[in-house]
Each structure stands twice: as C-alpha cells, then as structure tokens.
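Input:
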Amino acid sequence: MLKFDDVSFAYPGAAQPALAGVSLTLQPGRYKVLLGANGSGKSTLASLANGLLLPSSGHVEVDGMDSGAADTLHKLRSAVGLVAQDPDDQLVSTLVLDEVAFGPENLGLPPAEIAKRVETALRSVRLQGLERRDPNTLSGGQKQRLVLAAILAMQPRYLVLDEPTAMLDAEACAEFTALIAEQRHQGSGILHITHDLHFATDADELLVLAAGRLVYAGEPAALLADAEALGRWGLAVAEVAEGDIAAAAPAAAPLPPQPRPPSRPAAAPLPPQPRPSPALRLDNLSYYYPSVTAAPDYVIKGLSLVVKAGSYTLITGSSGVGKSTLLRLAAGLLKPSAGSVSIADGTSQAPTAVVPGAVGLVFQSPEDQLFAATVAEDIAFGPRNLGLLAVSGKKARGRGRRRKTADNDPVDPRLPTPLSEAELVAEALQQVGLDARAFMERSPFTLSGGEMRRLAIAGVLAMRPRFLLLDEPTAGLDAQGRAFIHRLIAAELRQGVAVVVVSHDLLEFGGRADQHLQLVAGRLRPLEEGRPWQL
Amino acid sequence: MAAVMPFGNYIDADTPLHRLDTRLKLLLLVGYVTGLFLVDHWLGLALFCALLLAAYLTARVPLAFALRGLVPLAVILVFVLLANGFSFSLDPLALPSAQSGVSLIGSFGLLPLGLLRGCFLVVRIVALFSAASLLTYTSSLVQLSDALVSLLRPLAVLRLPTEDIAMMFSIALRFIPLTASEAERIMVAQQARGAVFDRGGPLRRARAWLPVLVPLFVKLFRRADRLAAAMEARCYAGKGRTHLRAQTLRASRVLLALLSAAALVVLGVWL
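Output:
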C-alpha cells in the first residue's frame, strides 16, 4: 500500500506550504484520480510519493518502507513509477533499447534479466520492433509510451502519473489511457494526477487538492454532479458567471447555462463597420521539403483559405499533419513553395503580401519566448520592432520600415494614433486581465505559469494584430485558464479581429467557431458532419 | 514541425564492416593512419589507396557520396598543392632554376618535383580523411560513444567517473537535436514579434539574439532540473549499474584486428 500520513511540505523560503496535512492511501489494483487546479500542489505530491522530496512533517510509506529511510530508497523508487508530463524531460538515451534498459541497469540487474524485462515492457506499450530507433524520431505519443515502458521495466507496483497526456493529441491520449487501464487490470495501483475532468468518471475514487489541502475524497459521480464545488476548487468554470475581461466590450448576451453551448453567440452584432473589412487570404498555398532523390515531400498542398475580419476559424488535425507549418506560412515566417499569403484590405487595391509581424501569432506554450527584464519591456518588444510606438526619441526612428504602409494607412481602424509605450503596455495587460500597476515592473520569470501565458499573449496583442492566430492556446491550462482563453477570443472577435485557433482538442473548441476545418493531406476541408465534439 | 537536424553521417546497412565492433574499427584506423604516414613512395600509397577502396566497396558506401564529403577539404588541398609546387624565393641560391624549376616571373616559379610531392601529400590527406570518414559512415553515434566510453573504462582505476561521463555523452547526443529545434522555435516566435536577426552591425546582430538565447537557457535549465529528477526517480546513482549491451569481444577477433593493424604499420615502413 502507498500511504500518505498527514503529510505537509513547504519549499524553502515559501510563505505557504505546498501541501498541508494530506492523508491518502493507494492499494494495488485501484485507480484513483487526483484533481486540482494549476498550483494546487499536485506535482509536489507526485514527487513526495516517489521519495524525490521528503515531507516536512508526516510520513510517506510504500509497502512498509518509509520514504525517509536511505537504505530502502531505491526499492521504494522502483516500487513507485513516476510518469511526468513532457517525455522530453524524462528520456535520457539515444536508443529506445537503452532507454528501457536504463532503470533496470540502475537497479544492477544481470543483463539477461534486463533483456527480458525490456522485451516485455516494449511489448506491453506496443513499441516492439522500434528497439533500434532514436527516441528523437518518435512521435509525441510514442515517446510518452516509451517513458511508460521504461518505468514498467522496473516492475513498479504503483504508478503515479502527473498529467501524462497533457501534451498528446486525442488519438495518442486514447492509446495511452488504454495502456493505463491494462496496467490497472494487471494489478498496479494507479494515482492519476490531472486537471482534466474527463478522466474522473473511470476512477475508483476521486481526490481533490485545493491550495495544498485534500478537500474531497470519494465517489466520482457525487462530485461531478456538484457544479458549485467544482467551481470553488477551480476544476470547472461556468462560463456565464465570469465577468468580462475587456471592460470596454459591450455586454454579451447571456449564454444558455450549458457547459458547452452548441455554437458561439454569433448573433451579438459586431459594431457597425463603415470601412471595408480586411481579409487574410491564403491562395493555392503549397509547402514541401525538397528532395533530390524522391518526389518532394508535401506538407501543405494547394491549400486555400479566406479569413474575414471578426470571424472565428478552428483548424484541427492530428499531430505532425502540418498545422505548425500552416501557421508559420500564414504569418509570413516561412516562404511558401508555391501560392501566396496576402492581406486584402477590402478596397480595390491589390492585396499586400504578409510580412512577419503583420499577423499576430501566439505559439504553443508562448511563455517559452519571454526574455526581457521586466513585463513592460517584454510586451513592448513587438510594438517596438514594428515601429508602432509614438516616437519619443531618435531611437525609435527608422525601425518601423516594415509597417510603414500600415502606419500611414487611413483605412486601418485599429491604429488611430501611435501610443506611448506605457499606454500600450497598460492596455495589453488589461486585455489579458493582469493589473498593470502590479505587474509592469516585475520580472517575467517570477510569474506563475498561467500569468506567464497571459503575458506572452499580451506581447502579441500589443502589436495590434487584425488577425490573431493561436496554436493550441489552452494546452496545459486548468479550467480557469481555459475559460480565460475563451473570454479573450470573444473580446478580440468583438473588436473585429479575426481569430484562427489551431488545436487538436475538439472537446475544448468544437462548436465555438464560425467555420470548423480539418487539415488532411496538406489541404483544409470542412470537419465532417458527425460533430464529434458532441459526445 | 521542425525536422530533426541531421547529425552524424552514419549510413545504415548490414555489411561486415558495419557489424565489426567499433573499438576494433578504431584500432584498424589507427594502424592504417600510422602506416599511411610511414609510406614514402607512390607504390605504397597506391596500395593503401587500393585497401581503402576495397573497404569502401565492402561497406557499400556510395563513392559519389564519399567524394561530396571531401568538398570541405578542397581549400586545404589546393593550398598544399600550391605551397609545394610553386616557390617565391628572393634568395638567388634557392631560385627555382637551381631546383630544376621553371622560373615564371623573376624569383616566382614552378617546381615540377615540388608539384609531384604536393600531389603525393594531397592523395595522402584524401586517404586519411576518407579512412576516418569510413568509420563514421559505418558506426552510429551511439556505437561511437559506446566505443569511446568502453576505451575510457580502464581509467576508472584512476577514480575517473567513467559511468557519469558515459551518461553525459548519451544525454548530450540526445539533447543536441532537441535544443536545436527549440532554438529554432523560439527564433521563429520572436520573428513573429518583428525581430530581425540579420540586419545591422555586429553589435546589433549580437543584441538581436538576446531574445532567443535568454528563453533558450531558461528552458534548458528547467529541463535539466526535470531530467535530473526523472533520472533520480528511476534510481540513477551513477554507480552500481549493470549494462544490457555489455560489448563482449571475441579474443580471435581482437587478435585478428591487432595483427591487421600491425601489418598495416609494417607495410608502411617497408614500402
């Protein structure tokens, strides 16, 4: 039995303990799901279960071994297998075979025994035959299955899974979940840590962590029916109840109280637009990797798309299908092999080719691109590069060449006059719901994960894009974070900004957009009629 | 999706040379190179070239591919040829004519003998480079690092942490392509925010890389932290490990390789 007995843990220097008085048990063959919002102490709990961290008070015990006892530490760690979110943070070898052998080798097992375990483990995650491959060449789903195989080769009795499917697409996620179910039936005790309610229904018991305390332990059904409790612990957000993020936005029509409205309330009329509205046009676009020997390797082939002002487009597709390439092409960051990407401003003038910066692109995990010493400077980076700021000195001059036409363009309604840097930063922060005075002078690296994501998005919004492309914007966010993204998109749409979301998560975005498209074999086609997101 | 950066130039095939233990290949290479340097006339050089050609044919490495690999050497080869074949000497005694050279402009002249010597050196350099390349064509990076580590292992007697060094090799090999694609991702993200990397003077260019390098290092440090935790969770302690792919060498093979290497050296001395 894996047992937490009144466990508390505080990181050195932290004001609040990360975990306080947590008691729980996990028996072999049981499947427990631990839910909690970002920052509730979930990952700390995982590290404690495996002896990576030792409790400040209380005890963690695995089959009678205390995690504080040095002599049984290796036995304890091999009994509790830990799978974390990102496979690239866990793989150490350049050969699949070596990766699975790593754990058993550390245990000092004889080579014959290691070989047997490696074979069994690879077969149980269905990666047999890939022993000689470099893990770098595997897909995300295969990599995470490799991580699991590497853990299984140590023959653990308990598995602690810390958001193991967060980076996987729907298909890979289903595969991984099936493997977990198999392990459970073979008698492993499984603690699945997640903020995704979808896993909760299968659990023998549901545990909820909120601000370091275990606030619920019991039947899944009882909790899932309690919307009020789910909201209180940040596990679900009733979208209606949320205040508006952009204060200036007109009052939205009240939504029906369903968790997933079948369609966006597109009825909310856009503000009257006296001027012709611009459109982003992708015409007969192709992109391929040239190959000397074989036929060119097409990623995008003859793709066309028109994105009109104020419209909401969703593009789905499984991983590796070329969604990122499409976004880079659309933002002018990659030169198409054939075809064109242009902005037609709605007048008779010829459309202008898209240059980098003309289209706002928020990459997946945009918090990875923060770099400046202060929040304000990071936000100002884009606008400064584009020359959007009011000229306060000689320094700013000459940098705005690329957007000169846009700057002087009388048709552009979003750029009345150049703003000062402070104004622009404050406005961008307000758009993402962060208090300008509290955040402007802070270092981006002192923010929480959710705040960093907001800041990174603010850095793109500050460039005043008329087209906003978002790549997997809700990946890794808990219920509140995801709700924030949806509010942000709604606010941008009301401003007449065109939004394109690229995501494999149909459960999250299905039914919200004006057009739902699927990227298949280098082309976009309407998502088939089954409406797969309506389960 | 950024393609994984090509790294190393291993050509996957199943030939006797591919199957040969990498450590023995290293040994043969050392023998070959030593012999090659001892050879001092054309007949010997031709023999060594023939041996190399036979090895290339055995390993089924396309010769056109191997020749393309020589392109970066071109500058050095041309320089060797010119430096040996021509002479600038103001010393009247060392005039080209004194060495049966042909004076072109004053003291600058062509030395036919020197040119011949230059050709000899060029062939020798090409053979040397091609022999070393053959090792990388027929051994994967994993095999190369395994071989290096295994040759280092005796140094454990000197309390060198060979186990940790082996681990570092492996992790470095794994993370080079990963880091490259991460850097590319951040770079594109900053370009989307209007960053320009290839304009302005050297100082401005260096500054332009700051928005890429800072997040890259932040990410690397964070990854290093998590990776260390994951390794610890899998009971890595840097000692007390066993090895699945413990390379066992058959004595007969080692002996054969040793003799062959020695023969190459002797051949070099004799020719």
